[in-house]
Amino acid sequence: MNRRKFVTNTASSGAGLMLGSLLAGASYKQKPSFDGGGPRRNFMQEVLKYRKIDTHAHADENQYKTEVNLDFADRLGISKLMISNFIRPFSEGTPDDFRSKNNFIIKCMKAHPDRFIGTVALNPAFKKESLEEIDRCRDAGMTGLGELYNQVKIDDPLYYPIIEKCIDLNWNIMMHSPVGYSRVKLYPAEPKNISLPEDFASIAKRYPEALFQFAHIGGGIDWEYACKVLKESPNVFIEVSGSNNAAGMIDFALKCVGEDRLVFGCDYSFYQGVGHLFSANLTDAQRKKIFFENIAKRLKKAGVYVN
Ligand SMILES: [Zn+2]
């Protein structure tokens, strides 16, 4: 979850808003219709030609509705969404809480097995229950952890047994990144145990075999700083979702960590998520990697094959 809706000079504003207006008339499970030819139609054809896996999606009963997820995904050509029901900031994250959140995800996966890949919420402060939850959710078809939140920092020793289990399973570990760190003052609502880029770099070094995903550089963090800190962490994906994508963000991230370490996500900001990858100066091959191939390769390691 990225929790701030900045109004800023955004790379997404061009392509994102254009997508919004192009798709406004399209309805669920319909291909967008166009009012003629020309550049508008060509742009949507360009958008729809890329296979896409949204590596950062949410589902719950209130805020992140299944039908809304699928509506956007259908319009934008997103074939799969990696959904989670994260433990909310400032909540204790008891085993009962995360089990019921994961149960909701399992329900969504059962309803739409061709669209949703479920990822697991847990709280390492409850070690035994969290390790058991990984087994339970894996048996139910879930893959990977995410979105992990602020209950425990990613480099806290409480995470070690969890990460070690994920290494055995080749599971992706996706965790929230903070809002507003360093370039502007840390957003006051960010809880104190939020994981900073340095924490990701440190745990990635301790466990080079583990597969991390640093969430939403468009969510409000100082993305230049985050990319620089994570430059030498080859096992950390930089995920580019978020609602406030400043101009040049993707281009900078690409230059910093390379095309094999960037992954597409929306975090419920669908137009921005897709739009800014078209605003960025990317080659066709780079877009394919970021939209689909990089995460598909990681999922394959865990035994999940997406075509
Ligand atoms: Zn988040």
TrEMBL record:
Matching entries from InterPro entries are given as: ACMSD, Amidohydro-rel, Metal_Hydrolase
Q: Which keywords does this Swiss-Prot/TrEMBL entry list?
A: Hydrolase, Lyase, Signal
Question: Which Gene3D superfamilies does this entry report, sorted A to Z?
Answer: Metal-dependent hydrolases (3.20.20.140)
Q: Name one GO cellular component term.
A: cytoplasm
Signal peptide feature range: 1-26
Domain Amidohydrolase-related: residue ranges: 86-297
Tell me the GO BP annotations in alphabetical order.
Answer: secondary metabolic process
Q: Does the keyword S-adenosyl-L-methionine apply?
A: no
The cross-references to Pfam families, in alphabetical order and at most eight, read: Amidohydro_2 (PF04909)
Q: Which domain of life is it from?
A: Bacteria
Task: Name one molecular function that GO assigns to this entry.
Answer: carboxy-lyase activity
Task: Please give the coiled-coil regions recorded for this protein.
Answer: none
- What name does this protein carry? Amidohydrolase
Organism of origin is Niabella soli DSM 19437
> Upper lineage ranks?
Bacteria, Pseudomonadati, Bacteroidota, Chitinophagia, Chitinophagales
